[in-house]
Amino acid sequence: MTIHATGGRPKATAFDMDGTLLRSDGTLSARTEQALRAYRDSGGIIIIATGRPPRLVLPLFPQLAIAHYFIYNNGTIVVNAEEDWRVDQPIANATAYRLHQYVLNHHAEGVCIWEVDDRWHANRLLNREEKAYFLGPADQLDPIILSEQSMSELQPSKILLPHTYDIDNLAESFHDELNVYRLSSAPCVELSPRAISKASGVEEVARRHGFTSEEIGAFGDDYNDLAMFQYCRHAIAMHNAIPELASIASGTTSSNDEDGVAVKLEQWLQIGED
After folding, report:
1. How many angstroms separate the CA atoms of 225 and 232, rounded?
2. Torsions phi, psi of 137, nearest 5?
3. pTM exceeds 0.85
4. Dist. CA 159–CA 194, nearest whole Å
5. Residue-wise pLDDT tens digits, 226-250
């Protein structure tokens, strides 16, 4: 295989995972993995930008160890592959506690999931249905139950809520403090600090390398990719992307189930068989 890197290839590219790199069945195709390796071999810097916590990335997808950087929990954790450089920007404790009180005031049996130190915590015991919904494939242990004392001390990297809560009122109530993301692929809401997003994570990496936003690419499909698309010059929307994202993209590609990331990377690199 011959790789011809072109002037149009971004120096660094951020890749969302679910709905972008991963197919609908949750797998990473051999073609996409090969295209990522080719992009890296051409000198491109790979950034995995996801709403997932660390435990739900490399342990499940060791192929992604080829990445140079990982942005977890929608930007609150940014770390390089060697783990000798890291930026943590969690939700302020006072904000997290007020959000918990807000949920309980509106839904007496409401559930708040806090991500702290790569473990999940809950404000109460979960019933069987809730466990089935919230339990990730790497979460074999029940969540740590948040005590009043822990709520007064902990700073979560991310908070997850069920979709049944009024997202518009919640977003308005915490407009100055939190980003409130709905997900198109699941009935839940993710929250992170207002100034933090996948875009701020990519900007941290760009600053470290002296890159401008003009030199960075991004692939995505969902609401939590919007800020990243506004920041990155080469923003590629998947065919399965939400309309709001597609409308601000600089380009499009095939769906995640049609290896859209690989298709575009191959175009950037002009890969051909000898």
Report:
1. 11
2. -65, -20
3. yes
4. 13
5. 999 999 999 999 999 999 999 999 9
